[in-house]
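Milestone M4 deliverable, item 7.
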Amino acid sequence: MKKTYGYELVMDLYECNKKIIGSRKKLKEYADKLCKLIKMKQYGETLIPYFGEKEAFTKGYSLVQLIETSSITGHFSDFWARAYINIFSCQKFDRIAAKKFTRQFFQAKRVKNRFLVR
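Output delivered:
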């Protein structure tokens, strides 16, 4: 008997708006709005550290938002204007709405995504 533990949406966003991915305030706004959209309850504050400054291609913000059913994480490359977002939850969520919102929020020109049932 196969049991589903959770659902994960993995998104790679290309040619994002650098002003948005480079703004702690905008990243917090993204986490807040996404949680409301997909009906996830935030657990604790959104962590948004800026690090990786030894190399141009590694520096940027990372985002961790725990939710009551797991987490939302993101890594943002200033150098490549890319965002790498994972939404994992034991509770089902609207992955189509999450992808559309994420692409629009970061003004990405292109997005690759994968959806995993775990």
